[in-house]
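USER: Please consider what follows.
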Amino acid sequence: MKFRFEPLLNLRKHHEDDCKYKLKKEEVVLLSIQRELAAVDRRTAQEAEYLKKVGTGRIDPFLLSSGSRFLSYLRQKRIEIDEARVLQERQVSIAREDLISARKARKTMERLKENFMEQQNKAALHQEQKILDEIGISLVHLGKR
């Protein structure tokens, strides 16, 4: 006898694969945001170092002013990227939970299939044993005649 929920099991396997793909996709987006954040941090450190050098000796007010505005821009950019990172971490967490849920559903169906197959094997062995018992009984009756 065939496991009648096989199409559902296949559907759950495909859903799990889809959830894996979505998780990887979200993780890649998070990684790119983290790289962008690191780049902004490096650029901020470079700009601060440059302004420190320019701020000694003969001071050019235009350079200090534009450098200060640029640092403010970089700080604001870092805040925006950090907010995007937090949101993306939530998306990764949601995708991970979806994958875990899909994996549990698939494993449940696989356990049902295994139990079904085990019951089918037991039934087949029982039927085979019945046939062998009947053959044995028939041979005993033939031997008595």
